[in-house]
C-alpha cells in the first residue's frame, strides 16, 4: 500500500526532477570553481615571463596582451603547463556541455582525466608542444598567432587540449579570461557539432539519439503527468538561467536569456541536425576504412586455421592429462572469424586456451583492439580506471618504505595508464614500463613512464636483472603464452627483497559459472591462461617468493553484468562496419540498430546489478579477480 505522503506522486516525473535538479546544482557549483584571470595585467612586481609560452586561438578569436600576460602569470603561479581559456561571455549551452564533462575542482588532480576545453584559446608551454610533436605553424613563440598563419577551428583546439593533457597530466587547468570574447553567438552547423563532439571523444550519433529521446520523454510527462510532469519540463526549460544566472559568476553567457527562453526548440533542432550530420560523416568514415577492409580480406583469404596451434594433450601448468572443455565461443570482443576453446585441468584447476593461438594469430586478433580502429575506445576505458590503479598502488603501503620504492617496472603497461595514476600515490618512484605494443613508446614520450621497453618480457631477463624494487603484472599473465616463464623473469629482474604485484581474473568466481560464455573475463580469444589463486601461490613459492597479501573482493572489477550484455549484443549483432567482415546488408544494419536499441535499458539494469554485486564482493571478499603481493626472499627453483 502506498503511504499517504507519496500518494499521487508521478515517479517518472519525480526521477526526472531529481536528475535535472542534481545536474543544475552540479553545474552551478562547477562554474564557480573555475578560477578567473585578473582583468588587468599584473603589476611590475609580479611581471610574468612571456618567453616559453604560446597562446593559440581559434579562427575569429582575438586575445589582447593583457589576457596573454595574465594567463602566463596564472599558469606559472599554479604550476600549470596547459591552460584553456574560457571567454567570459561563452554561450550558455556550450558552457553547460563543458561543465557536464569536467569538474574544475578536481580536473588537475585527475591524472587520467581527458583534457577538456571550450575551443577558443589555450596557453601552452613550448616544451609541452615539443614533447607532443606539435610544433604549431599557426603560433609564434611567446604569444599570439603567426601573421598570415592558419587559425584552427574550435574542434581542432578542443582536440589539441585533449591530447596535450596527456603530456601535462597533472599540470593542465581551466580559467575564465574576462578580456576574451566569444563574439556574437551563432548556431553551429551540424557538421561543426559533430566535429566538436568527436574532438571531445564523444559519440555524436548516440548523444543526439539520447537527447531526442530525453526531449520526447519530457514532452510525454508534461502532457500526461500533471503538475509533476510540468515541473520536470519547466526545470529543464529554465536550467540554463538557474545554473548560470545570478550574481557571483565571472561567466555570464551573452545569450543566456535567449538560450533559456528558446531552449526546447533549440535543443530539438540541435539534436536533429547533429543526428543527420553524424549519419553523413559515418558514411564517409566507412569509405575511408576501405583500405583496412581490403587488407583484412587478403589476410583471411587463407582461412583462420593457421592462427591456431595443434591441440595439446596435457595441462601446461601441472602436466595432467585430465582435461575437460570449459567452454567454446567465437570472438565476442570484435566479431572476427574463428572459434576458441577453453579447457580445464581436472587436477590443478588451471583453465587455458586449447588449442592456443600462434604468434601470428595473436597479432591478428589483437589488431584494432588496443590500437588502430579501437585504440581511442580502449584508451577511454583505461582512463576511467583511476580508482583501481590507485588501489593497486596502495596495496604496497604496509610493505614498502614510507617514501616509496625507488624503482618500479610495470609489465604489460599498455599505454602507461597505471604508472601515470600511481605517481599520485608514489611521487618519488621511478616508473618504467614494458609491453609488446607501440603504446609503451607513447607512454615514454608523455612522461607517464621514465623508460619504455618494447618486446617480450623474458627477452629482457638479463638486461634488467636485479634492477627493480617492484615489478607489477596487472591483468598481464592471462595474456601470455607461458606464464611460468614470465614469473621466472620477474624473479630475475627483482632485486633481493623486491616486491612482485600481480592481478588476475579469478576462474573460480561464482559469476563465471552463472554467466557462462558471457562472463567477460574469459575474454576470448585474448586470454590464454586463467590461473586459480592456489596455483599462483604455489608457483611463487617455487621461485623463492613469500606471499605477503592476497585480495579478492577489493580487486573485483564491477563489469560482470554490463559485460554480459555487451558480449551478448555483439554476438547477436556484430558491428556492421567492422572491416574484417563482408559488407553488411541493409537488413543486417537494421538488425544491429534494433539490438543496440533493445540493449540500452538492459545496460541500465546491468549497471545497477553490477553496483550491488560490487558491494557484495567487497564484503564477502569474493570478486571476479584477485591481487597478490609477494616478496622475493630466496633464489627458489626454476623450471
UniProtKB/TrEMBL annotation:
Annotated GO MF terms: methyltransferase activity
One BP term from GO: methylation
Keywords, ordered alphabetically: Methyltransferase, Transferase
Annotated segments matching region Disordered: 134-154
UniProt keyword annotation of Methyltransferase present: yes
Record Gene3D superfamilies: Vaccinia Virus protein VP39 (3.40.50.150)
Recorded superkingdom: Bacteria
Pfam family, one: Methyltransf_23
Name this polypeptide is given: Class I SAM-dependent methyltransferase
Organism in which the protein naturally occurs: Streptomyces goshikiensis
Lineage summary: Bacteria, Bacillati, Actinomycetota, Actinomycetes, Kitasatosporales
Amino acid at each position: 500500500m502506498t503511504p499517504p505522503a507519496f500518494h499521487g506522486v508521478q515517479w517518472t516525473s519525480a526521477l526526472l526532477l531529481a536528475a535535472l535538479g542534481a545536474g543544475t546544482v552540479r553545474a552551478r557549483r562547477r562554474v564557480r570553481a573555475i578560477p578567473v584571470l585578473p582583468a588587468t595585467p599584473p603589476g611590475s612586481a609580479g611581471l610574468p615571463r612571456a618567453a616559453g609560452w604560446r597562446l593559440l586561438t581559434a579562427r575569429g578569436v582575438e586575445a589582447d596582451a593583457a589576457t596573454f600576460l595574465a594567463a602566463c602569470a596564472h599558469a606559472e603561479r599554479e604550476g600549470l603547463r596547459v591552460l584553456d581559456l574560457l571567454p567570459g561571455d561563452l554561450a550558455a549551452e556550450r558552457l553547460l556541455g563543458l561543465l557536464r564533462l569536467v569538474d574544475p575542482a578536481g580536473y588537475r588532480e585527475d591524472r587520467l582525466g581527458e583534457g577538456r576545453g571550450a575551443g577558443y584559446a589555450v596557453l601552452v608551454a613550448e616544451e609541452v608542444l615539443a614533447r607532443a610533436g606539435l610544433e604549431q605553424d599557426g603560433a609564434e613563440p611567446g604569444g599570439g598567432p603567426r601573421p598570415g598563419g592558419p587559425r584552427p577551428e574550435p574542434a581542432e583546439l578542443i582536440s589539441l587540449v585533449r591530447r596535450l593533457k596527456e603530456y601535462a597530466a597533472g599540470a593542465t587547468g581551466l580559467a575564465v579570461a574576462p578580456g576574451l570574447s566569444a563574439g556574437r553567438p551563432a548556431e553551429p552547423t551540424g557538421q561543426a557539432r559533430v566535429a566538436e563532439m568527436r574532438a571531445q571523444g564523444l559519440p555524436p550519433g548516440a548523444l543526439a539519439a539520447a537527447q531526442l529521446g530525453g526531449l520526447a520523454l519530457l514532452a510525454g510527462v508534461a502532457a500526461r503527468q500533471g503538475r509533476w510532469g510540468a515541473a520536470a519540463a519547466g526545470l529543464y526549460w529554465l536550467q540554463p538561467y538557474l545554473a548560470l544566472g545570478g550574481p557571483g559568476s565571472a561567466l555570464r553567457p551573452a545569450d543566456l536569456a535567449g538560450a533559456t527562453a528558446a531552449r526546447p526548440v533549440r535543443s530539438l533542432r540541435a539534436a536533429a541536425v547533429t543526428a543527420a550530420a553524424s549519419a553523413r560523416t559515418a558514411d564517409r568514415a566507412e569509405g575511408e576504412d576501405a583500405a583496412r577492409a581490403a587488407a583484412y580480406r587478403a589476410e583471411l583469404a587463407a582461412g583462420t586455421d593457421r592462427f591456431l596451434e595443434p591441440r595439446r594433450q596435457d595441462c601446461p601448468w601441472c602436466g595432467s592429462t585430465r582435461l575437460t572443455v570449459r567452454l567454446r565461443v567465437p570472438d565476442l570482443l570484435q566479431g572476427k572469424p574463428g572459434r576458441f576453446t577453453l579447457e580445464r585441468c581436472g587436477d590443478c584447476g588451471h583453465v587455458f586456451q586449447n588449442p592456443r593461438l600462434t604468434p601470428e594469430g595473436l597479432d591478428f586478433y589483437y589488431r584494432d583492439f588496443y590500437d588502430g580502429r579501437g585504440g581511442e575506445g580502449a584508451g577511454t576505458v583505461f582512463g576511467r580506471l583511476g580508482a583501481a590503479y590507485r588501489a593497486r598502488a596502495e596495496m604496497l603501503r604496509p610493505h614498502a618504505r614510507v617514501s616509496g620504492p625507488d624503482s618500479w617496472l610495470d609489465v604489460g603497461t599498455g599505454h602507461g595508464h597505471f604508472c601515470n595514476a600511481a605517481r599520485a600515490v608514489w611521487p618519488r618512484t621511478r616508473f618504467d614500463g614494458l609491453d609488446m605494443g607501440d603504446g609503451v613508446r607513447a607512454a615514454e614520450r608523455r612522461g607517464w613512464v621514465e623508460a619504455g621497453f618494447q618486446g617480450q618480457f623474458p627477452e629482457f631477463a638479463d638486461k634488467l636483472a636485479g634492477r627493480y624494487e617492484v615489478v607489477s603484472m596487472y591483468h598481464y599473465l592471462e595474456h601470455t603464452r607461458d606464464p611460468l616463464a614470465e614469473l621466472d623473469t620477474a624473479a630475475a629482474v627483482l632485486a633481493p627483497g623486491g616486491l612482485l604485484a600481480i592481478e588476475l581474473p579469478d576462474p573460480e568466481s561464482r559469476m563465471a559459472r552463472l554467466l557462462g560464455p558471457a562472463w567477460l573475463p574469459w575474454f576470448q580469444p585474448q586470454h590464454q591462461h586463467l590461473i586459480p589463486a592456489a596455483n599462483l601461490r604455489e608457483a611463487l613459492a617455487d621461485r623463492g617468493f613469500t606471499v605477503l597479501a592476497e585480495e579478492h573482493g577489493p580487486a573485483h572489477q564491477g563489469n560482470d553484468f554490463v559485460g554480459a550484455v555487451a558480449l551478448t549484443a555483439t554476438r547477436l549483432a556484430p558491428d556492421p562496419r567492422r572491416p574484417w567482415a563482408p559488407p553488411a546488408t541493409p537488413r543486417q544494419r537494421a538488425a544491429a540498430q534494433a539490438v543496440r536499441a533493445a540493449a540500452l535499458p538492459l545496460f541500465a539494469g546491468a549497471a545497477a546489478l553490477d553496483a550491488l554485486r560490487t558491494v557484495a564482493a567487497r564484503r564477502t571478499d569474493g570478486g571476479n579477480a584477485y591481487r597478490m603481493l609477494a616478496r622475493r626472499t630466496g633464489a627458489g627453483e626454476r623450471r
